[in-house]
């Protein structure tokens, strides 16, 4: 009886550990810190942009289009994007690379950068973005996303 309890407890502990590890693996990092600055990045389908907003900023909406969104904020309490310079590329799994051309978007005091991108269904891309921070230092962020 005691042996069955120990086996059940060990299996429960193993299940909880595996669940915790799986949960941790799903967390996708979406920022990098460089000194006083935080570079926040994401990739989203263009369909998420409301038509009137797309028209206002001349953004193309389509099922095979995504946007790479990058902004720079002060790390301690910064909520507004800061001016920076961006360039980069996206590379697929067979090392085909395409340049990212970022467009600066200003909404009030906030500044962020969008780069349009065409993609194939369920394509996995590695993004490398060179960022010149407001202090003039150049940094590179790299991340991978499945679209």
Automatic annotation (TrEMBL):
Pfam families: DUF4426. Keywords: Signal. Residues 32-147 form the DUF4426 domain. It comes from the Bacteria. The keyword Ribosomal protein does not apply. Residues 1-22 form the signal peptide. InterPro entries: DUF4426 (IPR025218). The keyword Acetylation does not apply. This is DUF4426 domain-containing protein.
């Amino acid at each position: 009886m005691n042996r069955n309890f120990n086996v059940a407890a060990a299996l429960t502990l193993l299940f909880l550990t595996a669940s915790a590890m799986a949960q941790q693996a799903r967390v996708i990092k979406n920022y990098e810190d460089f000194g006083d600055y935080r570079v926040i990045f994401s990739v989203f389908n263009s369909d998420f942009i409301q038509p009137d907003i797309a028209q206002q900023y001349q953004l193309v909406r389509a099922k095979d289009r995504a946007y790479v969104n990058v902004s720079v904020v002060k790390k301690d309490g910064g909520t507004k994007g800061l001016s920076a310079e961006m360039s980069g590329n996206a590379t697929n799994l067979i090392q085909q690379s395409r340049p990212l051309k970022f467009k600066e978007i200003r909404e009030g005091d906030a500044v962020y950068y969008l780069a349009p991108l065409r993609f194939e269904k369920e394509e996995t891309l590695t993004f490398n973005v060179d960022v010149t921070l407001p202090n003039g230092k150049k940094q590179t962020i790299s991340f991978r996303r499945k679209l």
